[in-house]
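Inverse folding, one chain.
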C-alpha cells in the first residue's frame, strides 16, 4: 500500500492589529427640518428620541462603491502598503444596488488589489465587526498578509420619506480598515452571533419580488421599541463578554465605539457597562446619522481625528442590527 501524501496547511502570524482607518461621508448635509414634513414630526422630537441633528447623504451620482473606494484609498495610504499586498477584500454592505457581482470585487479592482479574493458580508450594522473577526482569522491562518475591511452604505436609497420607524435616522458613508500582522495582540477575541427568532424586527418592508410586482422599491423599516430593548439589555451583555474574552476591564479602555444606532442606546450602554469618565465614547450619530455597517469605522475615524492621543489605546467596538446579528471585540486603535 502506497504511503499517503501529507497535506500542507497554511500557517500565519500569531498576532494581528488594525493598521489604519479611512472614511468617506455623503456629500450632502441633511438637517432634521428637511425631512420632518412627510413623517409629521419635528426637529425637537428627532433630537430627543435619537440624538440626530443632521445626517450625511450622498448625491444621486454617488454610489456605495464610490464611498468605499474613497475610504479604502485613505486607509491604504495611511497603512503605507502597496495594494498588491492585500490578500482579501471584505465589504459589509446592504446597499449594493445589484444582487451580483459583489461590491467587494469591484472595489478590489478600483483600489488595485486584484486578484485578491473579494466578497460581501450581509450582516448589516454588525458587518464591520464581522469583517474584523474574519480578517483576524485569515491573517493568523496564513491565508492573507493584509486584509481590507470595509463597511459601505448608501442607505438613502432605501429610506422611505414617510416612514417613522427608521428612515429619518439613515445616512450614507463608508469606513475602511487595513488589518495586518502585529508583534503583539491588537485584536481581541470576537464575540459574535445571531438571533434569527427576531428576523422580522429590522429589515425590508417587502421582498424584491413583491416590489417588482407592485412597482415599489423595498425600503427599510424596524420595530423601534423591540430593537431598543434588545440593544440595551442584550447587547450590553455581549459587550461585557467581549471585554472578558479580551482579558481587559472597562477602566482599561481608552474608547467605546458602539454602532451609531441611537444616542439613547449609546448612553444606556455606557451606564450598563459602568464606563469611567476616562473612556471616550463615540457619538458620530449626531451629525452623520445611522450608516449601518459603516458606522463603527466612521465613528473610529472621527474619534481619532478629534482625539489623536487615543492612538495605541484599547477600544471596545460592538455592532448590532438586522438579523438580528451582533459582533464585538476589543481592538488597539491605530
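Residues assigned per position:
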Amino acid at each position: 500500500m502506497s504511503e499517503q501524501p501529507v497535506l500542507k496547511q497554511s500557517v500565519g502570524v500569531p498576532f494581528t492589529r488594525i493598521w489604519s482607518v479611512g472614511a468617506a461621508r455623503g456629500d450632502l448635509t441633511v438637517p432634521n427640518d428637511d425631512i420632518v414634513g412627510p413623517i409629521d414630526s419635528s426637529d425637537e422630537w428627532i433630537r430627543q428620541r435619537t440624538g440626530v441633528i443632521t445626517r450625511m447623504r450622498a448625491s444621486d451620482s454617488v454610489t456605495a462603491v464610490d464611498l468605499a473606494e474613497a475610504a479604502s484609498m485613505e486607509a491604504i495610504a495611511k497603512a503605507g502598503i502597496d495594494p498588491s499586498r492585500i490578500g482579501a477584500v471584505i465589504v459589509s454592505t446592504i446597499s449594493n444596488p445589484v444582487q451580483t457581482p459583489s461590491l467587494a470585487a469591484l472595489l478590489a479592482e478600483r483600489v488595485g488589489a486584484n486578484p485578491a479574493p473579494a466578497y460581501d458580508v450581509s450582516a448589516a450594522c454588525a458587518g464591520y465587526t464581522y469583517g474584523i473577526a474574519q480578517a483576524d482569522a485569515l491573517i493568523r491562518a496564513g491565508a492573507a498578509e493584509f486584509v481590507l475591511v470595509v463597511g459601505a452604505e448608501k442607505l438613502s436609497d432605501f429610506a422611505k420619506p414617510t416612514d417613522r420607524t427608521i428612515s429619518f435616522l439613515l445616512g450614507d458613508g463608508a469606513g475602511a480598515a487595513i488589518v495586518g500582522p502585529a508583534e503583539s495582540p491588537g485584536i481581541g477575541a470576537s464575540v459574535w452571533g445571531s438571533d434569527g427568532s427576531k428576523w422580522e424586527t429590522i429589515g425590508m418592508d417587502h421582498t424584491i419580488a413583491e416590489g417588482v410586482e407592485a412597482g415599489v422599491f423595498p425600503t427599510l423599516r424596524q420595530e423601534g421599541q423591540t430593537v431598543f430593548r434588545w440593544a440595551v439589555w442584550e447587547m450590553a451583555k455581549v459587550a461585557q463578554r467581549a471585554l472578558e474574552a479580551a482579558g481587559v476591564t472597562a477602566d482599561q479602555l481608552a474608547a467605546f465605539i458602539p454602532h451609531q444606532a441611537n444616542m439613547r442606546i449609546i448612553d444606556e450602554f455606557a451606564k450598563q457597562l459602568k464606563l469611567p469618565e476616562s473612556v471616550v465614547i463615540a457619538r458620530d450619530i449626531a451629525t452623520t446619522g445611522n450608516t449601518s455597517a459603516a458606522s463603527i469605522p466612521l465613528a473610529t475615524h472621527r474619534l481619532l481625528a478629534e482625539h489623536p492621543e487615543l492612538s495605541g489605546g484599547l477600544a471596545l467596538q460592538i455592532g448590532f442590527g438586522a438579523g438580528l446579528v451582533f459582533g464585538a471585540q476589543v481592538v488597539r486603535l491605530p
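The chain has a mean pLDDT of 94. Residues 224-246 form the longest helix (23 residues).
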